[in-house]
Amino acid sequence: MSVKAEWIAVDWGTSHLRVWAMQGQRAVAEARSDKGMGRLARSGFQGALLELVDDWLAEAPIDVIACGMVGARQGWVEAPYAAVPVAPLSGAPIRVPDTDPRLRAYVVPGLKQVKPADVMRGEETQIAGFLALNTDWDGVICLPGTHSKWVHISAGEVVSFQTFMTGEMFDQFSTVSVLRHSVGEGWDEDAFREAVEMTLSRPETMAARLFGIRASDLLEAVEGSVARARLSGLLIGAELAAARSYWLGQQIALIGASGMSAIYAKALELQGVPAIVADGQRMTLAGLNAARKLLEH
Amino acid sequence: MSVKAEWIAVDWGTSHLRVWAMQGQRAVAEARSDKGMGRLARSGFQGALLELVDDWLAEAPIDVIACGMVGARQGWVEAPYAAVPVAPLSGAPIRVPDTDPRLRAYVVPGLKQVKPADVMRGEETQIAGFLALNTDWDGVICLPGTHSKWVHISAGEVVSFQTFMTGEMFDQFSTVSVLRHSVGEGWDEDAFREAVEMTLSRPETMAARLFGIRASDLLEAVEGSVARARLSGLLIGAELAAARSYWLGQQIALIGASGMSAIYAKALELQGVPAIVADGQRMTLAGLNAARKLLEH
């Protein structure tokens, strides 16, 4: 309980807050809460952070470096998007004004693409972490998640990217829509593979096949695990169809939670596309380490 | 208030209950509540109905003919699906056992398609109503709604059909997903047209363009009416792409609420496909009238 931090790394998304006490490049303690940016007004951020890190602080101020939706217009401080093509950490993080004197808090800016319009906040830090650990890496990074991203990397810069709502769609369909009556726990590899092939080869069928998950359950009492894998496969196949120009003939790195990355790796493998997998949390920490080197003090 | 019904027509869906006091083929009074099938246990159906129709009843029993999800396994009585190809009203409605002695209640069976698996409950009655009013009509009927249906009609039979979750997807995306921050009231015809063309010609882009609605709002502050029309257009364009084999070169009839039918008619018109429009409620009543002729008493 007497851990003191040299600096503090923060991953602050819409629905989660995760903090690490850092000594050099190493995390020596961590904590988390559900006080994501979506639940906080501007005046609430510092308190939500201090709840988790108060014990780690000394009297002298230390650096706090945060990435994610915390930098949105409604966040702790707005960290304006940098426009691609640009390095994932394109400049110094933005200082949060008027904090507790024990903190010097900074937020990493997100990236934007003007045409087609697209944005990211948080993924740029994971990408920077991956590139710090894999110098001179060119290729495509896929970051599966609530809003999955496909990102073209060349010469250390984000050249272009594309966001898909696949994770959020899976959550909606499996918990809000009529499909919730059919989707259960577990997994069925054959059903997943078949569904991926379906929408990847004929993406227009997605709209038609979704209700089929419910209808086949009503007519044939399909297992909940089959329905789950089928729903996931239809959505990921449609994403892969739309992202084909990103992955075809490319070197792919997946950054994310291990379960989700494994599903994407399987779907890519079915297309004969090999992918390396990097742990999302580890990349976040490596990226925040890289961001710290940019601080101007 | 002293209306008496010769018989009672009932449209009983998942989330609504609508009843009409009928004299011959004419509705002389109507009432509605939100006691849809989704909110009721089997023991609750009769009470929910009597709340609306009690004043219309006499001592002698009268016929009550209902269509919709009321005939599902968890409904008032299960009215098993008839398998296509089959006439939309393929046999006598199913009698509900053990009712109040003032009622002789019946439920119209839905239709099923074995492969690809699909089901309908309620739309078969609207189709029967349309065919009763348009004898010898061959072609394709589209019924837009929460779960829109495309139905191939030949020689008075439903030959095949296909369900799309377009309406439910629109509701989810516009009220639950991150797009809810961007979708507002109103309508923009140009945005709708552009979005329909996009996903109809390249259906794989739907997965990619959905998040673009949010991103372009963040970067360019898009009007809520534009975002609404764009979301609707992306979803309907994708539905039309998947339903192409239904509408291409066909005579189309749209059955539904007038606003929704007008949107689909516009999307079809953009493809050079003319459609006639029939009012959903009127078709339901015509179909229940047709079902009444099948009663065996």
TrEMBL record, chains A, B:
Domain of life where this protein originates: Bacteria
Listed name of the protein: 2-dehydro-3-deoxygalactonokinase
UniProt source species: Ruegeria spongiae
